[in-house]
Design a protein that fits this description.
The protein is an alpha+beta fold.
Length: about 325
């Protein structure tokens, strides 16, 4: 491992100032992803700026009755918060579906948003990878790609984003707060992540030195309370998703009045399924309608021999989840 310096930041401004002057510096939160990548040699920072004392690890209520979650909050604490469990069950369930109890106790909300792909070629420094070494190629397209993306991909990269939490936040229309040289700004999740295009090295729209400080959840509604997260993986626990769905729906006389659907493990970012949502909103909800709506969403998919199954898998998960949510809504259950 390359030798590196260590500095502890006392505030977000202190952290931004420390990182901005060092092009090879990186922020350190829980370290559950960064330290692994350093051990593998994927990233080699010359300086680590510890932000655990600089960031809030608490939840505060906003003036609009939403929740402002400090980026330093641990995943396990967020999942266990009674307000989150009651008003945003999809988020609590997504967090509990990720990693292990020990890792959730260390991992932070900000770090979860920023974690890097688990693509085998990205993690192996002996292999080419456009995300790690721009211009070197993407061997996954012709190689091992079963777990990789089918939506939002490019000829340069088909890696998936690994976060469960971010999929739930996409369904909830969460907002990410960032502090940088230009001051504080708010980014919708759609504006926070980016697709690979010709430059897969950048997962998000942040600049060097930008620090995620908080995530805001909108005021709770019947829709957010009637939400859930479903994850399919190769083993029962401690595994990344092969496919996942974060969903929320309200129905009136079996007709969809409002709906949110986001897919995980199918794209380089959490994939908000707006085409499928528009196809279902205002229409009767049944399995055939959901499968047809997801098929319309998947018309943009780039399927490869070993990951083509993800299109059908996503439709099956969505149909099962939405049917269960609608049944709960009809019975008046949160």
């Amino acid at each position: 491992m390359r030798a590196f310096g260590y500095q502890r930041a006392a505030s977000p401004a202190d952290a931004v100032g420390a990182l901005t002057g060092h092009p090879e510096a990186a922020y350190l939160g829980g370290g559950t992803n960064l330290v692994d990548l350093m051990r593998l040699g994927v990233v080699r920072p010359s300086l680590l700026v510890d932000v655990t004392s600089a960031l809030s690890g608490e939840i505060t209520e906003t003036e609009e009755d939403g929740l402002l979650v400090g980026a330093g909050m641990r995943n396990s604490a967020l999942a266990a918060d009674p307000r989150v469990r009651r008003h945003y069950p999809v988020l609590s369930q997504a967090l509990l579906a990720g990693a292990s109890g020990q890792l959730r106790n260390m991992a932070t909300v900000g770090g979860n948003l920023l974690q890097r792909t688990r693509c085998l070629y990205f993690q192996d420094v002996t292999k080419p990878c456009n995300k790690r070494a721009p211009g070197s190629g993407c061997p996954a397209i012709a190689g091992i790609h079963r777990d990789l993306a089918i939506l939002g991909v490019s000829e340069s990269c088909i890696a998936t984003h690994p976060s469960d939490m971010a999929v739930a936040l996409a369904a909830l229309d969460a907002v990410v707060y960032v502090e940088g040289e230009a001051g504080r700004r708010a980014l919708a999740l759609d504006d926070f992540y980016r697709l690979p295009g010709d430059d897969p090295s950048r997962d998000n729209t942040l600049s060097h030195g930008d620090l995620v400080t908080a995530v805001e959840l909108p005021p709770p509604t019947d829709l957010s309370r009637l939400s859930t997260y479903r994850k399919v993986r190769d083993r029962a626990s401690y595994a990344f998703a092969v496919g996942s769905v974060a969903a929320a729906v309200t129905v009136d006389d079996d007709v969809v009045t409002d709906i949110r659907v986001a897919f995980g493990a199918v794209a380089p970012r959490p994939w908000r399924a707006r085409v499928a949502e528009d196809a279902l909103r205002g229409h009767p909800l049944n399995r055939e309608a959901v499968v047809a709506a997801v098929a319309r969403e998947m018309e943009r998919a780039s399927l490869l021999p070993d990951n083509a199954f993800k299109a059908d898998l996503s439709a099956r998960i969505a149909a099962e989840v939405l049917d269960r949510l609608a049944a709960s809504g009809r019975q008046g259950q949160p």
